[in-house]
């Protein structure tokens, strides 16, 4: 009988969540939900020196924004609590000691200073089968000396075999093998009693009954250590299936995408704004740049995966139905910010005004634009959303519906402005004042009839009218604008600009 699918995302709370991390969450989540399984978040905070205040909450805020809620986590509880490794500290030593007892690990007493000296003596020094007998450890020292040193600081290291091949099947890469002579003797338990990632991830995956372990391909070199630990601890039959996800690459494809690349090229790499509590430096996120969560999740899904068709737009539910680990690519996926913006534009177009209203309303009010009429806002959103790529675009594209433009681009009108146009617009104001109707089609009809009477081309008159109402060369259909802002406001704006052009 197949075991229940249980997958986990196990971040370290050391800072903002990179889009690669969110993609790992997404692939875990999709696989779990498709299989009727559980998605677990486990906080791997065993390295207390790298712990950053607020980083754990940031992780959960990001997942909530993306709609990727865990079934079990420190925030949600669950049957395998606690879900922070620092709170599971007492679990790990017995397994490390068991490995020593069975001859698969050993105590090492080398000080930080001694190891630093070795690194200076030997370029690319590794603590391994080739060097361990020249170090201070329970394998190289006599029993009495080792026993005495046990009273002081010490770590437990894995004893990697000298000449073996470790093989496993990766769900993405197929058969993968490593030669153990290329792998160093990793520390499993630190001097402070905290496990390293290598021991903790194996023990916790076993205790939490994790069925599949999906992580970035940068963890591939650690796979032989973890596989040997599963074997040596007697849990080989319960080892999860592995999948090492492709890297998200720089736009030029040359190396892994980093925060530094985003800073250099002017786009975010974190899901949401992250403020470093030590430096006070804020790194902009996709959310604050104006991305919808639907678009962010959609674009991440297609970084290294597709469903085998040309379809690019997926809801989260559609992704759950369509996702397959067999269609995850082996090679890295280049990040293309222009393509990311395309996804956002398409999602802005796709969503109804009611779904966009909360974000747009908040943006407009933050920009000092008062919204007296909620019904008008929905109409405006529907009218202008095709012109918006990022949510802040609504400030320019929608703001003038609610307040007169602060700046008028009269410089765009003046070069071709003459007495005939001045007369036309003066007459248009009078005609609109006498209108007993007020809708876009009738306003356009009145405009064109008056232009014909004055023997003027409508095309030469549209830009001045747009600038009178909007302030610049942008916005949707000019008569749609007039229809929505109303008779009094349309006439007031026209008269104001005519006064500026005298």
What would your notes on this structure say?
- By secondary structure, this protein is mostly helical.
- Among the domains are: 92-245, Glutamyl-tRNA Synthetase, domain 3, CATH 3.90.800.10; 352-403, Helicase, Ruva Protein, domain 3 (Orthogonal Bundle); 404-502, Arc Repressor Mutant, subunit A, CATH 1.10.10.350.
- It is built from 20 helices and 13 strands.
- The protein has a three-stranded antiparallel sheet.
- Strand 5 (165-170) and strand 6 (174-179) form a beta hairpin.
- It is elongated and about 110 Å long.
- The N and C termini lie far apart (86 Å).
The overall pLDDT, averaged over residues, is 95
Terminal Cα span: 86 Å
CATH domain class of the domain at 92-245:
Alpha Beta
Q: CATH superfamily name of the domain at 92-245?
A: Glutamyl-tRNA Synthetase, Domain 3
Main sheet specs: 3 strands, antiparallel
Portion in beta strands: 5-15%
Fraction in helix: 40-55%
Strand-pairing-aware structural class: mainly alpha
How many helical elements?
20
Q: In terms of per-residue confidence, which ranges show pLDDT below 50 for 5 or more consecutive residues?
A: none
Shape: elongated
CATH architecture verdict of the domain at 92-245: Alpha-Beta Complex
CATH names the topology of the domain at 92-245 as: Glutamyl-tRNA Synthetase, domain 3
Radius of gyration: 32 Å
- Sequence of strands across the biggest β-sheet: 3-4-7
Would you report the number of β strands? 13
